[in-house]
Amino acid sequence: MLRHDADLVLGPADDGGYYLVGASRPVAEIFQGIPWGTPGVLDATVAASRRAAARLLLLPPWYDVDVPDDLERLCSDLTGAGEAVSLCARTRDFAQELIREGRLPRCPSRG
Predict the structure, then answer these.
(1) Is 9:36 a contact under the CB 8 Å cutoff?
(2) What is the spatial distance between Cα 96 and Cα 107, in angstroms, rounded to a whole number?
(3) How far is residue 8's CA from residue 75's CA, in Å, rounded to a whole number?
């Protein structure tokens, strides 16, 4: 997308922010004045990208991992039997490495 169709790609998160940012050129001005930590982060960034005349593409909504409940959801997704397990094998491996190194808490046990 960044090579052909967009200057900026955002992955909207369930909480009003985003789980991914990609840019094909410097777009630092787009991130100034954003109400970080609020449900208005994505909307403010979209508005800023319009003011900067950046070609913006939005990916499908997903979730980010920035609070303990999000980590629990990720752990559940990565240890379940659904599509996320095969699609997110690298994320699972990376999370397991961080846990082994003590840089990420162990995932809560499920039920």
Answers:
(1) no
(2) 9
(3) 29
Cα–Cα distance, 60 to 10 (Å, whole number): 9
Q: 10-residue block means of pLDDT along the chain (111 residues)? A: 90 95 93 95 97 95 87 80 73 85 76 44
What are the DSSP calls for the chain, one per residue?
Answer: -TTTT-SEEEEEBTTSSEEEEEESS--GGGGTT--TTSTTHHHHHHHHHHHTT--EEEPPPB----SHHHHHHHHHHHHSSSHHHHHTHHHHHHHHHHHHTTSSPPPPPP-
pTM: 0.77
